[in-house]
């Protein structure tokens, strides 16, 4: 099998989701005691996250350094375990000329939506990702209608995400997302474009399909690992 690398710690609770998802999928396919060959490179996310609000210009270089460190370990493929950091990755990928396959969350999500012929999606993510165009625009350019929640809801989602990123899950988070699911039930799908959101959506019943971007990345990675 090929060996995948995870650029994780971004946040640590959601990195555990990647680790679990990859191992479970390999074991389901191969049985026995099989698990996923992988490298977990866990960064101190505070150094990047603290710059989101007013230091974004520094983030691409910080990410570049971390990617160079993990690629020096010679993995066969790379998953960046964070949606927002794909904006920074897109700013440096041409300069880096990476030969190692990177399982790009936006490209794969777009492919997944088009494959399933969904037309209207609601983007749920960090406030930064919902309000920026880096995730929305590629989907819209592909003919997908992308909406985001109201400003007050975006602020509430951000507050919840901050707690989830610390490993804190409360019943009130699940209740809030259930309310959102009921309000926006006329969409084809919700994109959980923040890797912590699936932690709170597990017990939410939604009419729209829930697109877990972790699962989307891992599914493609597993095909690659076993190829």
UniProtKB/TrEMBL annotation:
The keyword Transit peptide does not apply. It comes from the Bacteria. Its EC number is 5.1.1.-. Gene3D superfamilies: 3.40.50.1860. GO terms for molecular function: amino-acid racemase activity. NCBIfam families: asp_race. PANTHER family: ASPARTATE-GLUTAMATE RACEMASE FAMILY (PTHR21198:SF7), GLUTAMATE RACEMASE (PTHR21198). This is Amino acid racemase. It comes from Dyadobacter psychrotolerans.
